[in-house]
C-alpha cells in the first residue's frame, strides 16, 4: 500500500508555506553571495512557473532570472513553418502537428489560416494519434510535422517504430527536433548574457539524463541544477544553486530525483538513435545557425522523409523576423519582454508579431499573462 | 511542449498501452518508451500520448517530508516574509486544480 497519492504529486510541490520557507532560506544565504547570481532557466515551462507563481518577486535583489531559448515553437524559423504550410497544400496530404505550432506565423500565413482555407491540418494532443489518422485514411499521405526538444523526440521515434511494425506505409515525417545542450553552449560561448548558474529542464533531463550538462561545469565552471516543473521545485533548485556558489564548488545536481536520473531514459535514447541522426547545422530563430543542434531522419528512411520527398516544392530562403520584434535577443537572455517597443500593444497573444508571444512557453506570453 | 503530467496507472493491456488517471481525467497512453515493468498503482509522467518515465515514490516522499519539516521550522520563526509577497495577480498562490494543469 503506497503512502503517496496522485494529489500529493501536485499539491505538495505547490505548497505556499513551503515556497515561503524556501524563500526565507534563499534570502538568508543570498546575502553572503559575493556577486549577483544571474541564473538562466532554459526551459519555457520553467519561465512559465516563475511568472505564474510570482517566484521572480520572491527573489532577493541579487538573484536575477535570464529566460532561455527552451521553447520549441519560439525557436522554429519562419522558413520551417512555411514548409509545414506548403506540405499541407500538397494533393492528398493530411498534415498533423502538435498543438501550439498551428498559430505561429510563417512568412505570410500560419497553419491556422491555411486550415481555414480548407486544407486538412490536424492539431494533435498525442503523437500516437497519427497512427489512428493514417489507418482511417489509407488513401491519404499523413505527414507528421515533428517539433520539440529531446522530451518530444522519442515519441516521434516510437511512432515510427509502431508504424513499421504494423506495416502502415502512409505516414511521412518532417523532422524539426532540436537539442538542448548546443544552444546552451552557444549562449555561453557568445559571452553576452553573463550567466553564472543554470536551472536545467525537467523533462528534457528525464530523457537525456543530468549527465548531459556536465560540460557546463567542466568547461565554463558554472553550477547546474536539474529542476522539477513545480514552483517548490524551482525554489529548491535556486537554493541549491546559491549553496553551490557559497561552497565555490560548481557541479551538476539533480533536484528532480523523482523523475530524472543521471543517465536518463536509455530506451528512449536508443529508439531516437535508431531512426534519427544529427544535422550538420540548423538555423534557430533568434540564435542563428548552430552546428549539430538538431536531428533529421537517417538516410535509410528517406522514402518516409517529407523533407526529401517534397524537396522541389519546399521554400528554403531565410526569412527574418518582424523588424520590431526582439524575440531573438530575449531567447539569448539579452533582453526582457518588457524591453520591447511592441510588447502588449502591437504584439499580444491573440495577435502575435513574434514567436515568443505565440507559445504558452514563450517569455513574452508568460510576461503578458502574469506580469503586466 | 515539454510539460509532462504525473498520472496514476489503472490498467495495462497486452498491446503495451495503459489506462491512466490524471486527477480525474482518464486516458490511454503508450508504454513503448518505458523499459521497466509498469503495473496498476504505479505513477508515471505522461507526455503527448506516451509515458516517458515512472515516478520514483521513494524520492517523491523524501522531498515531501523535507518540505514539511522546512515549512514547520519556518513557521516557528517570527521574521517571516510578509504574506503579500505570496500573492500575484491571480490571487493567493494556493493550489486550485484548473483545466490548464492538463
UniProtKB/TrEMBL annotation, chain A:
Keyword Transferase: no
Keyword Iron: yes
InterPro entries: Hyd_form_HypD, HypD_1, HypD_2_sf
Pfam families: HypD (PF01924)
One example GO MF annotation: 4 iron, 4 sulfur cluster binding
Gene Ontology terms: biological process: protein maturation
Keyword terms, alphabetized: Iron, Metal-binding
Family of this protein: Belongs to the HypD family.
Name of the featured protein: Hydrogenase expression/formation protein HypD
Taxonomic source organism: Lebetimonas natsushimae
TrEMBL record, chain B:
SUPFAM superfamilies from the UniProt entry: HupF/HypC-like (SSF159127)
Listed Pfam families: HupF_HypC (PF01455)
Single annotated GO MF: carbon dioxide binding
Domain of life, source organism: Bacteria
InterPro entries referenced in this protein's UniProt entry, alphabetically: Hydgase_assmbl_chp_CS (IPR019812), Hydrogenase_HupF/HypC (IPR001109)
GO annotation, biological process: protein maturation
Family label: Belongs to the HupF/HypC family.
Protein's recorded name: Hydrogenase expression/formation protein HypC
Species of provenance: Lebetimonas natsushimae
Amino acid at each position: 500500500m503506497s503512502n503517496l497519492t496522485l494529489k500529493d504529486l501536485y499539491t505538495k510541490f505547490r505548497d505556499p508555506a513551503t515556497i515561503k520557507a524556501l524563500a526565507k532560506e534563499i534570502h538568508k544565504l543570498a546575502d553572503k553571495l559575493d556577486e549577483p547570481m544571474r541564473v538562466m532557466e532554459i526551459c519555457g515551462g520553467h519561465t512559465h512557473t516563475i511568472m505564474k507563481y510570482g517566484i521572480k518577486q520572491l527573489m532577493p535583489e541579487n538573484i536575477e532570472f535570464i529566460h532561455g531559448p527552451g521553447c520549441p515553437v519560439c525557436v522554429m524559423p519562419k522558413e520551417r513553418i512555411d514548409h509545414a504550410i506548403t506540405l499541407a497544400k500538397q494533393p492528398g496530404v493530411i498534415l498533423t502537428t502538435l498543438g501550439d505550432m498551428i498559430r505561429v506565423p510563417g512568412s505570410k500565413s500560419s497553419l491556422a489560416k491555411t486550415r481555414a482555407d480548407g486544407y486538412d491540418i490536424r492539431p494533435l494532443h498525442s503523437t500516437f494519434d497519427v497512427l489512428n489518422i493514417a489507418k482511417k485514411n489509407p488513401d491519404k499521405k499523413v505527414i507528421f510535422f515533428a517539433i520539440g526538444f529531446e522530451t518530444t523526440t522519442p515519441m516521434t521515434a516510437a511512432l515510427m517504430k509502431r508504424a513499421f511494425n504494423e506495416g502502415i506505409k502512409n505516414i511521412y515525417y518532417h523532422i524539426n527536433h532540436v537539442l538542448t545542450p548546443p544552444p546552451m553552449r552557444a549562449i555561453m560561448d557568445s559571452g553576452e548574457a553573463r550567466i553564472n548558474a543554470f536551472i536545467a529542464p525537467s523533462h528534457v533531463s528525464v530523457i537525456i539524463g543530468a549527465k548531459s550538462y556536465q560540460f557546463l561545469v567542466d568547461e565554463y565552471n558554472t553550477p547546474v541544477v536539474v529542476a522539477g516543473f513545480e514552483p517548490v521545485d524551482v525554489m529548491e533548485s535556486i537554493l541549491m544553486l546559491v549553496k553551490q556558489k557559497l561552497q565555490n564548488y560548481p557541479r551538476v545536481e539533480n533536484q528532480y530525483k523523482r523523475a530524472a536520473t543521471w543517465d536518463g531514459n536509455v530506451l528512449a535514447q536508443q529508439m531516437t538513435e535508431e531512426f534519427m541522426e544529427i544535422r550538420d547545422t540548423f538555423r534557430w530563430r533568434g540564435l542563428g545557425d548552430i552546428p549539430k543542434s538538431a536531428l533529421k531522419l537517417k538516410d535509410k528512411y528517406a522514402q518516409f522523409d517529407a523533407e526529401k520527398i517534397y524537396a522541389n516544392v519546399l521554400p528554403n530562403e531565410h526569412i527574418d523576423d518582424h523588424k520590431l520584434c526582439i524575440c531573438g535577443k530575449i531567447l539569448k537572455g539579452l533582453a526582457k519582454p518588457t524591453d520591447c517597443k511592441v510588447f502588449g500593444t502591437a504584439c499580444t497573444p491573440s495577435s502575435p508579431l513574434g514567436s515568443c508571444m505565440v507559445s504558452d512557453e514563450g517569455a513574452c506570453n508568460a510576461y503578458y499573462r502574469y506580469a503586466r | 511542449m515539454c510539460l509532462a503530467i504525473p498520472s496514476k496507472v489503472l490498467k495495462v493491456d497486452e498491446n503495451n498501452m495503459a489506462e491512466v488517471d490524471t486527477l480525474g481525467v482518464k486516458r490511454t497512453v503508450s508504454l513503448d518508451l518505458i523499459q521497466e515493468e509498469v503495473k496498476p498503482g504505479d505513477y508515471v509522467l505522461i507526455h503527448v500520448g506516451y509515458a516517458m518515465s515512472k515516478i520514483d515514490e521513494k524520492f517523491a516522499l523524501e522531498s515531501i517530508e523535507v518540505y514539511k519539516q522546512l515549512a514547520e521550522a519556518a513557521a516557528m520563526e517570527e521574521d517571516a516574509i510578509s504574506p503579500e509577497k505570496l500573492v500575484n495577480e491571480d490571487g493567493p498562490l494556493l493550489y486550485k486544480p484548473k483545466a490548464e494543469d492538463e
